[in-house]
Amino acid sequence: MDFFRKKKFLFYFLLVCLSWNCQKPHSDEFQPPPVITDATPGNSSPVSASFRGRVVDLQGIPLSAVTVTAGTRSSLTNENGEFELINATVDSLAGLVKASKPGYLNGFRTLIVSKAFHYVEFRLIREEKQGSVVAGTGGTVTFNNGGSATFAANAFISADSTPYTGKVDVMAHFIDPTTPGFETEMPGNLLAIDRNNAATVLTSFGMLAVEMRSENNQPVKLAAGKPATLHFPIPAALLSKAPASIPLWYFDETKGLWKEEGSAVKTGNEYVGQVAHFSFWNCDVPNDYVMLEAVLQTPQGAPLSFVKVDISAGDAGTTSGYANESGMIQGFVPKGKPLHITVKGECDENIYSVDHGPFTQMADLGIIKIQIAPDKLIQFVGDAVNCNNEPVTSGRAEVHYNGKVVATTIENGHYSLSLLRCSGQAEPALLYLVDFTGGKEITFSLDEVADGLNTLPGKTLCDALTNSTATISIDGNTFSFVSPTDSLSYTPRSIIVQRRGANPKISCWFSKDLALGEVPVSAVYYTDEAGRFYYPTGTASATITAFDNYVAGSVSATITRDSGRTVLPIIVNFNMKTSQ
Predict the structure, then answer these.
(1) How far lies 89's CA from each of 85, 114, 221, 535, in Å?
(2) Beta carbons within 10 angstroms of residue 201's beta carbon
(3) pLDDT at 17 over 70
(4) 30-290 to CATH, choices 3.40.1410.10, 3.90.226.10, 2.60.40.1120, 2.60.40.10
(5) Class of 374-460 per CATH?
(6) Helix, strand or coil for residue 353?
(7) How big is the CA angle at 103 (ends 538 and 130), to the nearest 5 degrees?
(8) pLDDT higher than 90, residue 44
(9) For 449-482, how does the pLDDT look when each residue is reduced to its tens digit (9 = 90+)?
(10) How many whole angstroms separate alpha carbon 16 and alpha carbon 33?
(11) pLDDT at residue 320 in the model
(12) Helix (H, G, I), strand (E, B), or coil: what is residue 5?
């Protein structure tokens, strides 16, 4: 029996980051309460968190131009489906990240978050019309990948609550909890609020996503007193374990939590229940849970950032998630169940496994040292000092390698980070160091990356970007920027200019390394002083006029924030010192 395929994702383990300091494996600040008295985001302490991740479709093809939002921060995915959100203020117990793109159902992730970088993956479901009914007569629509919905006559209203009498198109998709990738396809994280307002973790027996549209593609809702009947197919691997009746839960798209409403009855190989409105609906059994924490490191103490982790809880199933940038995992696991933890490599191979539990209360596993074959692990260690030749006490180190970005803190002048790779990969690496206290930074490349440990030469973060300048001209206004008061960052394929800790901000991305002359622009993103996000529309161009110790030039583009109804030209002129 293929255990991982047939039993996968029956519970959901929340892999989140707790601390910038990977040496501190536990923090009481982020333990969830057993009861959440108000399920809205913000009921617990807000926190400024950052997110990196990727958005693909159900076939794994990267999706570009997806709008990803957390709090008031938004970003668009690039051609590889990648995004980054910096310093988004979200609820620490229910940090909601949303991904949206025309032609696809919205994707949602709910995380326990801290002031750190979190990794998030989405697999978006394409909107697919399953059938239609006439409002006056109702009827049944059967879904292509399982399930159906039955509507009563005269059961529909328009968005303004007036009766709707035309044709109703039904978009729907069944989400099977036994299929690989379930945790990146479903919304939220199976953290829920039951009818008694208590927090619980769910075991899913199947989900349905349903939307209704009018003939002119406008949202249609169910009228009061006219519920629809949903039929959920029960996956074959779960049929023998499926209870005779089961609570129904809908996903609250503004709060990021599942909420109990109604129930369904087992009829043959499906669950049947009535719903009064549409969203994602879920057939689930609630579970008692405990918190589990651990930090994953190499034997040398470097964090295993963003590695995939599988956790099996026997009959309760298996789930997957990712460690944070500091190698931290933390989340909810079934109470009283033995656990088998497996860490996966870059090629999805097993690189470590261990048994733990069962646990009846919060469990801190501390630091777990993992030995990895040298050809599958790259480590970078180095030192950084400021202008006074003193160790950088508050800083950040990033490595960009093979499409991945891994970061860690610089503490006492030292940094150490690691990432996994498939055997045989060989690409140069780009490293970026910043001194938060002195407002200095440096970027340098490593053309040859060795297997295993790469000890880097010491760097002085003293004159990086000193006296760099830039201006942004938009809508009749010109904003001036000067480092180190403002933040001006250069990499071979990007220019980022912003006020420190404030807006406006602009990021210009190029499809090849900067060089003298015309350079193709892949994207320009702008955030104005009010925090409103603009994305590119039309064409953009860049001209590099100097490229030596300084890179100088300009970028011209058109941007919008309302799907092209308002288009603004924007020009960025810059003169930035390149790091040596």
Answers:
(1) 10, 10, 32, 21
(2) 25
(3) no
(4) 2.60.40.1120
(5) mainly beta
(6) strand
(7) 160
(8) no
(9) 888 888 898 988 875 555 677 889 898 887 877 7
(10) 17
(11) 74
(12) helix
